[in-house]
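Course exercise 7: structure representation. Students receive a sequence record and must write out the corresponding structure in token form. The form below is the worked example handed out in class, using DMT family transporter (301 residues). Read each field label carefully; the graders check that inputs and outputs are placed in the correct fields and that the protein name is recorded exactly as given.

STUDENT ID: A-19
EXERCISE PROTEIN: DMT family transporter
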Amino acid sequence: MTDSRKKAAAHFAAFLTILIWGTTFISTKVLLVEFTPLEILFFRFILGYIVLWAVYPRFFKMGRIREELLFAGAGLCGVTMYFLLENIALVHTLASNVGIIVSLAPFITAVLAHFLLKEEPLHLQFFIGFIVAILGIVFITLNGSYILKLNPLGDVLAILACLFWGAYSILMRHISKLGYPAVGSTRRVFFYGLIFMLPVLLVFDFRLDLERFAEGSHLLNLLFLGMGASALCFVTWNWSVGVLGAVKTSIYIYLVPVITVAASYLVLHENITGTALLGTFLTLAGLFLSEKKTKKAKKNT
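STUDENT ANSWER:
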């Protein structure tokens, strides 16, 4: 595969990942009737881990301690801490606050990458695109209600979740350079994420209660979250980070609110207001501006 085709495939993989991640709220909403957020998190990743073993049933030897620390750090940041902090934040602040704050992830990733990854410099147009996209995300998230209340604890937890996702993106960029297969690397990240999750299960309310899986809708939605949103999406996302870089790939996170609005309209038959449409336009414009400059800069290097 030529370099240009590989990059095109990586862009498609990142978009496909965000397309699936943007619709996970529907499955989560169904499961929250019988499952706690922590239970959903654990079950989806344990299922994803099993799927990745089925797809890639091979061991690869443990590398140097530094390499294992990279995998452990990625599991802690991208699996355990990001999702845990985001879920806890939703308990202490408005969902609209979390939706807007989590959308800061591409910006935080870009800043971290600028200082930690020499090959990913920042450019003025990235910041312009970020401002336009965030303005659009605010419009989409508030959707005409204009209710945004500061809740310090929840808002700080959401910001911390973004920091952990940025750290995860940087770690995966380093891991991608080790030469391991994307599926095998993702499986090892899941392993460490689940290990770090175990102490949390003992502290918070967690029930195994496998009888709940007998309900068809519960099983199907968990399969979607485990096989699609976890196993497939983390592999495609991690591979895209390896090809495109942490900054370029993270820019696609701007699309999550846009896809959520579209899914709400198509699946849940929720109304789309003029404010949401304006926000969608601004978000797409911000994505285009951020991505366009990155491409130009790449040509000049």
